Amino acid sequence: MELLYIILIGLVAGFLAGKIMKGAGFGILINILLGIAGAFIGGWLLGVLGISWGGLIGQLVTALIGAIVILWVASLFRK
Fold first, then answer.
1. Average pLDDT over residues 57-64
2. How far is 72 from 41, CA to CA, in rounded Å?
3. Is 23 a residue whose pLDDT tops 70?
4. What is d(CA 65, CA 61) in angstroms, rounded to the nearest whole number?
5. pLDDT band at 10, cuts 50/70/90?
6. What is the spatial distance between Cα 39 and Cα 65, in angstroms, rounded to a whole number?
7. Which helix (H) or strand (E) holds 33?
């Protein structure tokens, strides 16, 4: 059940990251898929840094940070 929860948070984070990173987006479908990956990467990255936020908003922010990082890195390879 937790995996489904992470995927749903990643969907929202990917959509929001695509809106934030206007020029670096890859279209809504790819942004959402990158958002799902960003949920995992964001959790890992902030865990390494010792940062932990609880609750729905904290998890959404964590996934959003991961999605933005992934979109930024992907945009570097796209150029």
1. 86
2. 13
3. no
4. 6
5. confident
6. 8
7. helix 28-48
**Cα(26)–Cα(73) distance, integer angstroms:** 12
Closest-CA residue to 67 (of 4, 14, 21) = 14
Rounded Cα distance, 57 and 74, in Å: 25
User: What predicted TM-score, i.e. pTM, was given to this entire model?
Assistant: 0.79
What is the per-residue pLDDT for 24?
58
How far is residue 68 CA from its own chain's centroid? 6
The residues near 30 (Cβ < 8 Å, ≥ 6 apart) are: none
Which residues span the domain enclosing 64?
Answer: 2-78
Total tally of structural domains belonging to the chain: 1
Rg (CA), the chain: 12
Encoding tokens for residue 36?
């799902």
Structure tokens at 48: 């390494």
